[in-house]
Amino acid sequence: MLINAARLDVMHRLGRAMADPTRSRILLTLLEGPEYPAVLARDLGLTPSNVSNHLACLRDCGIVVGQHQGRQTRYEIADPHLAQALTALVDTTLAVDEAAPCIDPVCTVTGCAGDEEFSA
C-alpha cells in the first residue's frame, strides 16, 4: 500500500504538535472551547510569549485558527472533525505500564510514572 504524502504530513504535524506537553495542554484547553492567549497563559501558568509561540506552531500546522475580535485574537481547534478526533483520542483508555519510567525527566502530567505524587 502506498502512503499518501499529504496524509503522512498531516499525521507528522499532529504528532509533533501533541508531542510537546505545553502544546498538548493548550489543545486540551481548546477542546473545551475557544480561548484568548492571555486566558490560556493565566490558566496554564505560562508566560504570554510562551503561549504565543506555541499557538503560532499550532496555527502554522493547521491545528488551530485565530479569530480576530477587535484588538484580540481568540483561538480554537481548526476543524470540528479534528476536535472530535482529539476528544476520542484522549478519551481512549490505553494499556500503559504504570511502572514504566516516564521518558520526559521534567514531566508534570498527573498520573505519569515520573510524577512524584503518584510514585510515592
From TrEMBL:
A single GO BP: response to cadmium ion
GO MF, one annotated term: cadmium ion sensor activity
InterPro entries: ArsR-like_HTH, HTH_ArsR_DNA-bd_dom, HTH_Metal-responsive_Reg, WH-like_DNA-bd_sf, WH_DNA-bd_sf
Listed SMART domains: HTH_ARSR
Domain (HTH arsR-type): residue spans on this chain: 3-97
PROSITE patterns: HTH_ARSR_2
Annotated NCBIfam families: HTH_metalloreg
Protein name as it appears in the record: Transcriptional regulator
